[in-house]
Prior knowledge:
Low-confidence stretches: 1-21
Oligomer: single chain
Shape: globular
Largest sheet: 6 strands, antiparallel
Mean pLDDT: 92
Structural class: alpha+beta
Amino acid sequence: MHILPKLVGALAVATALTMPTLAQTTIVAPGQSTTGTYMDYMKTVYDRATFAELLQIPIATFDKEFELVPMAAESWSQSEDGLTWTFKLRPGLVWSDGEPLTSEDFVFSLQRAADSGYDFAWYWDFAGGIKGWKEVTEGADASELAVKAVDDLTIEITTVAPKPYFPSVTSLWYPVPKHQQDKFGDDWALNVENVVSSGPFSVESWEKSNNSVVFVKSPTYTGPWQAQVDRLEVDPTIGAPEVGLPAFLAGDADYTFLNTGQVPVATATNPDGIRKNAVFATSYISYDLDAEPFNNVDVRRAFYHAVDRAELTSTVLKDIAIPAGSILPPGYPGYNPDVVAQATFDPEKAKKHLADAGFPNGEGFPNVDIWIREEGGYNGAIVPAMAQYLQAELKEHLNITVSIRQLPGAEWMDGLRGKKNNIFIAPYEYDYLDPSNFYGIFYNGGRHGYFVPEYDALVAKADAESDWDTRYDLYAQAEQVMIDQGLIVPLVHPITTAVISGDLGGEASQPNSLGFTPLDRLGHYFFTHLTK
């Protein structure tokens, strides 16, 4: 009675051995940071493994038109007082080891982030405004966090003030597998064999020496945006355009970002493959406000007026950046031309500020190191070249000597947070579409350790304001404080230019309605809507 099943099984094996193996589709992509510690975005943002977030499904995320799309959640609602949000998860989602994905995994991810020294904690304190967040980060029990699993598919979260944009904030809310954390602790995200995924990809390998990662299409993922390719190989060693373009031309990469000198060559050889994107990002100078000589507002104001942004972006950074007069990029909600107009190149005004600070013609001004971080992608083409331009500008117009020190991402970030230097070039790209995203990085310490009461009061008021026009006006007032006190020097907004292989297809390879192609800046959308 067992002969027939055995015969069928034997025939199946024989057929499999004689049939040709279906070819796998593989995309080779440039990565960014060459260093990474954990395969877990909710453990570390700044020192995570390459594209670790692709392994997990967020509550929601953005498509190429920057429209918010439900992902792990199938719906959400806000209470009448605006303080409580309820998210309903999609049924049937599972981890790659077969364990059900539940609301408890999302709640646990925030609880652990709040009480474990998460390096992106400001985001959930300011942008999220979760009730109890500050208290838990300062030592209260994680149970004090106002996030709870009502049942396996329902999450309830309470904020300290109305947050009309809160669903956008959840684009960076990823689950953590509590059953793996209970078993291995944080080591679940250190070793590939322990890593489980809830999103469209699983991890096959991770080379920690250069942070290169191989992802494969997850066979257990049932949510939106299924992967259309079998393998994704992400290699940060080809992230810099100087390495990426030769790799692309040799057929060893499917796309690469370009520096300004490469744009004409790539356009001539691959005109149909050129893709541009106006990135919602800003590169700016920031300071340690407590350290000499930048504890003097006149020194900071001198730097603000000593930079010829138009020349910088029409020569050194031609085709890859536009001038920045505000922390907000053009087209971003709250962008204000009146703020931008104040960022003038005025060498005489700069010299006067420097003289008022006690350094006439740069006399007595100490030599300073400006710290920049090693970059891949579009920043790899912009930041080093911009730093050299600034070095020359400050010498020419202020008679100031500036040295450039380039550091790995983790070391640079540690130096920024720990105030181990007094001046930095800091790139920042948006996380969610609201002015609070950019202004939040300077609020109440934030990314730079700035504590400016007048600024903080305006931003806090704007953040809780339900009328959008009033909110935008308050943010403009807050940026005026930044200008008057010289808190930053906005430099450029990136315009990325990339070239993609003619073998790539799918919605993600084509421009959006504005003519831009975000590529991997929207990783969840891009890598799941790309074909080959």
